[in-house]
Amino acid sequence: MELQFPDVSQLRFSSSCSFLTFFVSSDTPRRPAKKAKPPFLLVNSEKRNSDALKGLQKEANKDLSRILRTEAAVKGIEKKANSKTARNLWPKAVLEALDDAIRNNQWESALKIFGLLRKQHWYQPRCQTYTKLLMMLGKCRQPKQASLLFEFMLSEGLKPTVDVYTSLVSAYGLSGLLDEAFRTLDDMKSVSDCKPDVYTYSILIKCCTKLHRFDLIDHILTEMSYLGIRCCTVTYNTIIDGYGKAEMFELMESSLMDMIENSECLPDIYTLNSFIWAYGNAGQIEKMEEWYDEFQHMGITPDIKTFNILIRSYGKAGMYEKMGMVLEFMRKRFFSPTIVTFNIVIEMFGKGGNIKQMEHFFQVMKHQGLKPNSITYCSLISGYTKAGLIKRVDSIMRQVENSDVVLDTPFFNCAINAYGQSGDVKKMEEIFLTMKERKCKPDSITFATMIEVYNAHGKAKASQKLEMQLYDRNKNSDMEGQESRSQKPNMTWTLEMDNYLIEALVQQVHLGNKIDKLRALLSWNDQTHTIDVEPEVWNSYVESHLKVRQYHRKKIDNYDDLALICGNDQVTR
């Protein structure tokens, strides 16, 4: 059924859903009136004002021109970085290219450009530059590069600042090296004028929550209290967001109460967004709406990200009418949808099988002058794949070829999966070659998808070849990332070893030693004897054990033992 967008002035809701009264409340704060723009969510097309359309196209052309100039500048400077003679370049060009590479998390390009920067005769080392680079390397999960960069900084005679150390803590922590992060924190404490501050600890807490090490949060908070460092709004928001993403709702709400009791730290828009994301992502729509109302009573006004979260939550729950209400409210209140908004809407309709609406919003997005990105095209391909419309996937691939969109590994994974599911192995292989030509590195999902397709079509040699490539890739990765660690023994882990380990762990359970911290990572289904885990945990395991991909959400023989080991108290043995 085609989605209809109601007139907001005609909406009426029962008292049982007080959340939705926000959309028709007469005392809702309105933004200042702006020059009228053509409506973007009308199903029936209307005649557009030609001047407005020309202005919109002009702005779109400006944005496209800026993007092209940025990409060309980064590539141009990166080429010069390979030259040994480029030592007298224009400072603005080099610095802007470096800033663009950092902002787009292009860590390899950024380090090349930084190497070129250090060769310039006008170069002066600055801690601020190192701070930005370290933060970027943390986001890109490059701890080894961060460590080398820190050594470069020391070799240039710079004295690390609090910001530099904090960035290094972030780089280690976000890469899963918590021991190194805490060791860096200890180094900070030993420097008289470089003591860790509240933001250092807040970032450390963020790293712990991302790694589901919630057992360390109380320890960090205790240390902060001992040092006289008071939590700030950022600290509380980090804790709340971490608990919310792990669906630890009681602790999330308890942290909010602690935040409110601390008169110096009041909830803000980030607190609101964390709460509604947590409940919306878990499918608890009523709780999401209740807390939305609560934050409204606190005087916290939603922003565009809030509405994006609401749209995504309603879409996941299949509540497309409420999705439409949020979109209509945004239009009436002059909240311009962003590319993120359209990507979410396109993704939700694609997953719901509503291809007509998915295509409609894709066209609206382009008419609004927003340039589709790799996420947009990935969602379109996924929607068509689910609907079995492989010919339309061909059309999307042609659009991509004729555009300047920057493609990434997830996009190619999506295309490879589409052609693999359709049985077009030749086309799948062509996409894989194009992926390499575009310098997009295949990941574990790429290899696992192709190996599964090859096995399904009886192509054992091709499957084994990819398995060897993945083995070499993982081996090289281990050698690069674990040089300072002890070498792993040369052995193959077998099913018998799994069973032996499980038996040993069960014995520890009976001695009172359960692995409670795994509760946040595992979801138990006693009826089907299956286990669901967080996507990042599963993908990490599949990367090293490709054959287990077929067992995802399948019944497992050791279910009762594993459930008992990991703290599921309902299981007895």
TrEMBL record:
Molecular-function GO term, any one: mRNA binding
Pfam families for this protein: PPR, PPR_2
Family annotation (InterPro entries): PPR5-like, PPR_rpt, TPR-like_helical_dom_sf
Keyword line: Repeat
NCBIfam families on file: PPR
PPR repeats: 126-160, 161-191, 197-231, 268-302, 303-337, 338-372, 373-407, 408-442
Family assignment from sequence similarity: Belongs to the PPR family. P subfamily.
Chain segments annotated as transmembrane: none
Repeat is among the record's keywords: yes
Name under which the protein is recorded: Pentatricopeptide repeat-containing protein At3g53170 isoform X1
PROSITE patterns attached to this UniProt entry: PPR
Naturally occurring in which organism (per UniProt): Nelumbo nucifera
